[in-house]
Amino acid sequence: MLTVRSSFAEGVLLETLALSMLNHDSAIASAAARMVSAACERPCIEMGSRRTHEEAAVAAARAAYLAGFSTTSNLEAGRRYGVRTTGTAAHAFTLLHDDEESAFRSQVATLGPGTTLLVDTYDVEQGIRTAVKVAGPELGAIRLDSGDLPTQATNARALLDELGATKTRVIVTSDLDEHAIAALAAAPVDGYGVGTSLVTGSGAPTVGMVYKLVERDGVPVVKRSENKASAGGRKFAVRRHQDGVATAEVVSPEPVAPRDGDRDLVVPLVKGGELLDPAGPAELLERARAHYDEVRQALPPEAWALSRGEPVLDTVTV
Question: How much is the pTM?
Fold first, then answer.
């Protein structure tokens, strides 16, 4: 995942920082990838800032976007990384007004009829009727945040169509994870807002990365305790493909003899303390997102199973 070549003092200072970033972000990205897969091309919105540390929330929004989420509700992630921000009004906004209609009129007056109205503060059916009354049939979307979501979404879609709001989207939230999203596959849902299960990385196995000293002045060193052992020496790695499908990751202490379809996994990022790519954070994130999507397309079908299982790709040492 990462090779650091430096003095011991500099290298050991990086240990906690590197592991913190890589373990956290890979856990979020893994969970996000599973949710995006379960969503079957319906957009997913990252909405988990309230469930994690304020800086972790920004990193989580970035990792989720990299793995396919369409937008985030975290404004700092929008400022820092250029991730598109979106969201809806809160229940508190409705309660601030004398009644639901007044709240909807305030929101539509400010944001236009294309906004998303939260319709389940009181009664969902009446909320939908009021939303269409206020915004008209061009209402952008409604959000459902409680109850039996498959039934609520089906009833909401039927009522919206009856009221002439046939293009109004149905967005659902409320403690969703990849399994809940998969269960909604047959429901008339147009998008998902995901919070807790995403930013905590729950539901998806994590890598559990470690940081080991494996070489000193060009000489391999190895940890050999009774219960744990490491492999000494610098490593080189490629991902092997057959007919465009990834089949294995090959790790070796020597440069791997290239085969047709191999992709080198070792890419220089920093040299002499200087970044080798001068691009800004937003551009780098867009490149990483495009790279992720390209790599994702090369994974075998079993990569998209939601159940826990063995690694999809074998690791081969040579």
Answer: 0.91
